[in-house]
Fold each of these.
Amino acid sequence: VNIMSLCAAPSGQLARAHSTSRPCKPVPAVHAVCSVSPRVGQHAACSPSTSSPSISYTVSRRPQRMQRMAPMQVAAVDSAASTVMEDIEVSTPARLIINYALEFCKASETYQVHSWMVLLGILKYENSTAAKVLKSMGLDDLYGAWHEVLWALNACDGLEPKAFQPEITFADRAYRVVVASTNFASWNGRTKVQSEDLLMALAAGNVLDGLFPDLNLSFARVRKAVEKQTGSKYALPDDSEEDGAAVTKSGDEDFL
């Protein structure tokens, strides 16, 4: 799998003309989104959970690169991904999204998962609940949005290749997004993380607002859109029992 194969349009979007894509323009917040942070094992202070998250699946596809990695190196990367992601149960859509982020960081030779890679996974799998929510909020052209995010991150050197590393690490915000998604799932009585839980975590980290400021993808608005899409209330621990008031934007970061 090379980087161009990962750049393929979401299903049903391959025939979309490039001219229909949203105009590409740099966004100020993108530098914060792709900032380099320590690896997962060093995030003991992250709230609301202090344990390192992992997802119980094995990365099955391996990247083909300009200079092929030796088989032992490829095995080391896949082993590292499995070690980092264990214990967390995920639904099939969420599994595809996070697997996409892992494959993307390997194919781009960054060896570090960033929160925007998770967003790219959502944009890639347009049949997921999370992608449908984004569509309902005005992000109609997922194919164009995918390229816009990638363009913005290239502009800030977010995809600068690194020397081969035997471990795949998680940037701070990506780590917090994964941890928060498990808590969102738990608060809603689920044992498996769903794609909408990942989307809510991205909204809580202001990743969506930072990359698409013109759409007002605030935490409160995303939550309402998720509820409309799923047909059920999206519970949060600080909901008032009397009125079920949504959390205000000022409290978004408390969930990461």
Note: The beta strands are 54-55, 87-88, 112-113, 169-170.
Amino acid sequence: MKNILLALAILLASQNLYAYNSKGMKVYKKLCVSCHGSPFRGAKMHTVLEWEMIYDESDTAIKDLHKSDKEAMEILNDSYFTKKKQSYLKKFLIGSAKDAGSVPGCDGNYCGY
């Protein structure tokens, strides 16, 4: 019985590792909505593995992807986009990727796709 409870606890903890991240959604809404649309739609542009690969390449992966877009670079070079906010955004994008298994719903921050 203890093994079953331990396995269940591990399963629930691992699911919450990349769960919905409201701080990341706020960063997305401030920086990304104008080009990529609603938060969940933008996050579903890639799979979990693709987002992880993008972020594993370097600390500046998002900036590297947008370097040819002048408007995007102005937004990403803003003082608002700190390392802490980058980590919030990463967690949100991975947790809301198209194969992450998260189903967007209504809450105080955002409703739907």
Note: The radius of gyration is 16 Å.
Amino acid sequence: MTEPATVSGDDILSCANVWKFYGPKAHQIEAGRSRGISAAQLYASPRHLAAVRDVSLSVNRGEILVLMGLSGSGKSTLLRCMT
């Protein structure tokens, strides 16, 4: 996708800037992200894994969404974040 995802009246599904971290106190990392901590600072901790990094998408009426990727690439994690 070359254009940023935007929310319009025809969207049936949309998400913006989705992140998911795993590791000790991951909820604190996610809270830090909302306070403007840079991605470089978040990745600096070897104890945390960013399973989903800044994903944005929108699906309009009549479109079909396909999530493809290797095993462990975050497809199921992204779907769990959206439900």
Note: The mean pLDDT is 80.
